[in-house]
Automatic annotation (TrEMBL):
Record-given protein name: YeeE/YedE family protein
Membrane-crossing residue ranges in chain numbering: 12-31, 52-71, 83-100, 120-137
Keywords: Cell inner membrane, Cell membrane, Membrane, Transmembrane, Transmembrane helix, Transport
Species of the source: Chromobacterium amazonense
Family: Belongs to the TsuA/YedE (TC 9.B.102) family.
Length: 142
């Protein structure tokens, strides 16, 4: 396997990671809440949940690609997988999020930053599952 140097973008990746970390830190410092997307979106549907900040957070996620377009051209998106495989993957991610009581943002970003042993276990589990899934698809088609 060779590294595709024309698409290797460490500075934009670093900036994106810093922005995610900053947003997660702001949310916990200013609001006392963990920036776990599955919990934020899931509790939008729960009765009596405080919805204001949740709606603002989700609006930021939805609107940020349009803001990105102000500063840069949108990347070409190529989906070269079968629809049934994408649907299956989405359902498995949803199941894993429910089973692990959180998602990559809640456990991987916020939980690891808080040195949570539960988040470390969850992050190791979903990273291992992701590596295994990519290996299986690359070796047995998809």
């Amino acid at each position: 396997m060779a590294l595709d140097w024309t698409h290797f973008t460490p500075w934009s990746a670093l900036a994106g990671g810093a922005l995610i970390g900053l947003a997660a830190a702001w949310l916990i410092v200013l609001n006392g809440r963990i920036a776990g997307i599955s919990g934020i979106v899931g509790n939008l549907l729960a009765p009596g949940a405080d919805k204001g900040w949740r709606l603002a957070f989700v609006a930021g996620l939805v609107l940020s690609p349009w803001l990105y377009r102000v500063f840069a051209a949108p990347p070409d998106i190529i989906v070269d997988s079968r629809p049934w495989l994408l649907i299956t993957a989405g359902l498995l991610v949803g199941f894993g999020t429910r089973l692990g009581a959180g998602c990559t943002s809640g456990h991987g970003v916020c939980g690891l930053a808080r040195l949570s042993p539960r988040s470390l276990a969850a992050t190791l589990a979903f990273m291992a599952a992701g590596f295994a899934a990519v290996w299986l698809v690359r070796h047995f088609g998809g």
